[in-house]
UniProtKB/TrEMBL annotation:
Annotated source species: Gordonia rhizosphera NBRC 16068
Name by which UniProt lists this protein: Integral membrane protein
Region Disordered, annotated ranges: 300-324
Keywords, comma-separated and alphabetical: Membrane, Transmembrane, Transmembrane helix
Source taxon at top rank: Bacteria
Length: 324
């Protein structure tokens, strides 16, 4: 069994990867995964304040995000790929493709920062970065396995014996992208991504109900309450288990998000208003007898004789003298 798997892997590497010129793409894919895993481990250790690990990179009071290093790395490696593409040096192109993959991982790991234009790395919005990374991995993996956009379209033309031209290809590409855009607006991101390679999935995604939180539902379902209710029922019945699994995976990879800053500050302010330390106990008089007398009771500022007389007149009982 082990020998059969080794032979199959070697045959796939030789015929499907090297001979077809996909070695740089494979190295890019591996570099992307390694870069993403390494940066996630690094930021988790920084968040945990591990003393033996590096801290955040700063320039004065400015935090230098790792997206900056990703941009520089992808720019340099991209220029190298363009230069060595003329010579078709597959080894050097593979090395540069690996660096390009690492840089792309650094960029997409902070995709939420670019999208929201603020530091939301450890907030709920920061999960957008994980989604972007997964989408990039899925698209690259499908290309690596030999899938290409519009392949099924070309196969259909071949089955119907229709010669495809530049005009037909352009119309098919625009139509394919338009369907993918509608599916994504309906909140079905994964269907849209995979459907670019398999257009029948796009048809299914267009015909099915949109997710109730999607832009399409806000535009089309607000005036149609029955359709919105059907979408919400479908979301509760079918998608809730998948959403729970997705949140579990995101927490495992990206860590639990922080509480929103304004919620944290309001909570701390409210606690400062209603929660106070208990006052210290009142001191015991050093001149007490065996029974003890607490200092600070009402009337302590009255002289001793006056206090005894007032106690004698205010109470029907005689005061008890301590034993000596």
């Amino acid at each position: 069994m082990h020998r059969w798997l080794s032979e199959r892997a070697a045959d796939w590497m030789t015929h499907d990867i090297i001979e077809r010129g996909r070695l740089p793409l494979l190295v890019f894919f591996c570099g992307f995964i390694v870069g993403f895993v390494c940066i996630r481990i690094s930021v988790r250790l920084i968040r945990a304040d591990a003393r033996w690990w590096f801290s955040n990179v700063t320039a004065g009071d400015t935090h230098v995000h790792h997206v900056v290093f990703g941009v520089v790395l992808t720019l340099l490696s991209g220029l190298g790929l363009i230069f060595f593409a003329l010579s078709e040096d597959q080894v050097m192109m593979s090395v540069l493709a690996g660096l390009f993959g690492v840089g792309a991982a650094l960029i997409l790991d902070e995709f939420a920062l670019i999208f929201y234009l603020r530091d939301v790395y450890w907030s709920h919005e920061g999960r957008t970065s994980v989604d972007a990374v997964f989408i990039a991995l899925a698209a690259t993996g499908m290309i690596l396995l030999g899938f290409r956009p519009l392949d099924l379209y070309f196969d259909a033309l071949h089955d119907f014996r229709i010669a495809h031209t530049v005009g037909l290809d352009l119309i098919a590409a625009v139509f394919n992208l338009a369907l993918a855009a509608v599916v994504v607006l309906k909140g079905k991101v994964w269907t849209g991504v995979i459907g670019v390679f398999a257009w029948p999935l796009l048809i299914v995604g267009v015909l099915r109900l949109a997710r109730p939180t999607s832009p399409w539902a806000r535009w089309r379902y607000l005036g149609r309450p029955r359709k919105l209710e059907r979408a919400m029922e479908r979301e509760r019945r079918l998608r809730r288990p998948f959403i729970r699994a997705k949140i579990f995976v995101q927490d495992l990879i990206a860590g639990r998000p922080d509480v929103l800053p304004h919620v944290r500050s309001e909570t701390e302010h409210r606690l400062d208003e209603v929660v106070h330390a208990a006052p210290p106990p009142p001191p015991i008089s050093p001149h007490r007898g065996l029974s003890g007398t607490i200092v600070g009771l009402p009337g302590d500022d009255v002289p001793a004789m006056g206090r005894r007389r007032s106690a004698h007149h205010d109470s029907e009982h005689e005061p008890v003298e301590p034993h000596t």
